[in-house]
Design a protein that fits this description.
4-stranded antiparallel sheet, mainly beta
Length: about 120
C-alpha cells in the first residue's frame, strides 16, 4: 500500500477470474475502499500487481508480472495506463516514492543481477 495522504491510499494485487488472474487496484478515500479499473497486459490472464508507489493524487505507479514478463502501470489522476517497462527486467520486488517526485523500483534483471529503476 502507498499513499500521499491518509485519505488517498492505494493497494494492488490480483483477483481470480475463472481459472486465471487479473490486476486488482483499490483506493481508500478516507471512508471506504473502491476497486479502480486497471488494464491487464495479457488478455489470457495471469496478470498481477505486486507493488505500488504514490507521489501525489495524480502520480501513482504500480508494477507487476504476467506470463510474458513484468509490466508497469501509471495513474494520472483519472485512469491507469500501461507504460513500457525497460528491457532487461525479470521481475519487480518493491517500489518507493519521494515527495520530490522520484519513484524507485527494485527487482532482478534478466541476467540474475539486482536492478534499481528510477523515473
Amino acid at each position: 500500500m502507498a499513499g500521499p495522504a491518509g485519505n488517498n491510499v492505494w493497494a494492488v494485487g490480483d483477483q481470480a477470474q475463472g481459472s486465471s488472474f487479473n490486476t486488482l487496484i483499490e483506493h481508500w478515500d478516507g471512508t471506504s475502499w473502491t476497486v479502480v479499473p486497471s488494464p491487464n497486459p495479457n488478455p489470457q490472464g495471469n496478470n498481477g500487481l505486486g507493488a505500488v508507489a504514490a507521489v501525489s493524487s495524480g502520480d501513482v505507479w504500480a508494477v507487476g508480472h504476467q506470463l510474458l514478463g513484468p509490466f508497469t502501470e501509471h495513474w494520472d489522476g483519472s485512469k491507469w495506463t500501461i507504460l513500457a517497462t525497460p528491457a532487461g527486467v525479470r521481475f519487480f520486488a518493491a517500489m518507493a516514492a519521494s515527495t520530490g517526485g522520484t519513484v524507485l523500483a527494485v527487482g532482478q534483471g534478466t541476467n540474475q543481477s539486482g536492478i534499481i529503476l528510477s523515473n
